[in-house]
Design brief:
Aspartate Aminotransferase, domain 1; four-stranded antiparallel β-sheet; seven-stranded mixed β-sheet; 13 strands; 2 domains; Aspartate Aminotransferase, domain 2; alpha/beta
């Protein structure tokens, strides 16, 4: 596509936008189980108003935009209160990846300053979000992935055995994305404190849901700042905080530790420059929308939504367990879980679900399908489960019908050369932003 010589009318832009978006997955109808955390039209309207009100503001300049200083400070304070440490220091970021990257950067620089560690090592379970590996790659930090226990939670003994002189950080998830289970955070944090290391809890999924499931009486294993030894937590507002995209929080137990997160330059001709997180300019709309939704929902609203999520999750799990060929992997601690099959090609079942209009997420090691449940899914239980039963029966009757995505994903899952698989992923990323030469082509 060439750069346009003349502008396009607003009406035509609207037509083209609507046409393109109409071909997206039906997230409003609950047809996907990831990517979008939708809490209903009323919450969406609050977010739109807040975001557009602060559309042009920039979090890089809190002196000019005092409103953003207020909103971000109050989001941090409210989140700290929710996680049982009102005095926690933190910042908002663009998402969980940036929050985790900031926690790793903080650990690396803390270890350099306090312990003289020249080349840091972090230790995480294999289920830890890839953001830890990305942070290690970007920041030149070694990363060790440790195995899981039989219940698919982190093996703390394996983490302990991986500690070396240059180790600086242990991490666990609350919960992990693949299986929805909370790692044994108290044990991990205990080992970290015993060895003089930092401990980060990736609660990007759970931070704005687990406190409310606990209020509802669900059994929640300790994971937040009530656990001694936990030094930092990441929490995504745009997941179960239901905020607009581009909003997460990274919190530290004390301000001295957070100082290692910051970046400053004192000799630039353009003036003194400092930023607390990776981004320079930060969209004020995301900050403002996060503040708005926390205040709009409050404890009462989040508890109501948590009840819907957990009851819907229970209904889906029961329905899946009633299908003989399927099984739930692990016992999830909240509204995220995976299911697999010992006898059928689970990727072929996913393809059959695709044909029925669903968009299940494929996982690997082991092969499974993933569900992330939000309030919108309470209306699809009675349609999804029959479609899943039909898809399973079709694969059982027709045997190996692996074609298309099932064949591709199944082949990649079985390839022992993971570097070759990585290159396939890189090639796929490269193709994502190639514009079509024929602008009239349709999917």
């Amino acid at each position: 596509m060439e750069f346009p010589e003349k502008g396009t009318s607003r009406e035509e832009i609207t037509v083209q936008l609507s046409d393109a978006i109409s071909r997206d997955a039906d997230w409003r109808g609950g047809k996907i189980f990831s990517l979008v955390y939708f809490a209903g039209d009323e919450v969406a309207d609050v977010l739109k108003e807040a975001y557009t009100t602060a559309f042009y503001t920039n979090g890089l300049g809190p002196g000019a935009f005092k409103s953003l200083k207020k909103f971000e400070s109050e989001v941090i304070s409210m989140t700290g209160d929710l996680l049982y440490h009102a005095e926690a220091a933190g910042n908002m970021t663009s998402g969980g990846t940036e929050s985790i990257l900031m926690a790793v950067k903080t650990a690396r620089d803390w270890a350099r300053a306090e312990r003289g560690v020249a080349h840091a090592r972090i230790i995480v379970p294999v289920t830890a979000h890839p953001a830890f590996a990305k942070a290690a790659h970007y920041l030149d930090v070694d990363i060790v992935h440790t195995p899981l226990r039989d219940d698919l939670r982190a093996d703390v003994d394996a983490m302990r055995r991986s500690i070396t002189e240059n180790a600086v950080l242990l991490a666990g998830s609350a919960p992990c994305y693949p299986f929805g289970v909370i790692d044994p955070i108290a044990e991990i944090a205990g080992v970290a404190a015993e060895r003089g290391l930092l401990c980060h809890v990736d609660a990007c999924l759970g931070a704005y849901l687990l406190p409310f499931t606990e209020r509802l009486g669900y059994d929640v294993t300790p994971w937040d700042f009530r656990v001694p030894g936990v030094t930092s937590i990441s929490a995504d507002l745009h997941k179960y905080g239901y905020s607009a995209r581009g909003a997460s929080v990274v919190l530290y137990r004390d301000r001295d530790l957070r100082r290692h997160q910051f970046f400053a330059v004192s000799d630039w001709p353009g003036g003194l420059y400092g930023s607390p997180t990776l981004a320079g300019s930060r969209p004020g709309g995301a900050i403002t929308a996060a503040w708005a939704v926390l205040n709009f929902l409050g404890v009462e609203g989040y508890t109501r939504l948590a009840r819907i999520n957990m009851e819907t999750t229970a209904a889906l799990i029961k329905g899946i367990n009633d299908i003989p060929q399927l099984k739930i992997l692990a016992r999830p601690d909240m509204s995220v879980f995976a299911f697999a099959s010992d006898s059928l090609d689970i990727y072929a079942i996913a393809d059959a679900l695709d044909e029925a209009g669903w968009h299940p997420d494929r996982q690997q090691l082991p092969p499974s399908l993933h569900c992330m449940v939000t309030p919108v899914h309470d209306k699809i239980v009675e349609t999804f489960l029959p479609d899943l039963r039909r898809a399973t029966a079709y694969v059982a009757e027709n045997g190996d019908v692996s074609t298309g995505r099932a064949a591709t994903y199944g082949m990649l899952d079985k390839m022992p050369d993971r570097a070759a698989v990585r290159n396939v992923v890189l090639d796929s990323i490269d193709r994502l932003t190639q514009a079509r030469r024929d602008s009239s082509a349709r999917d």
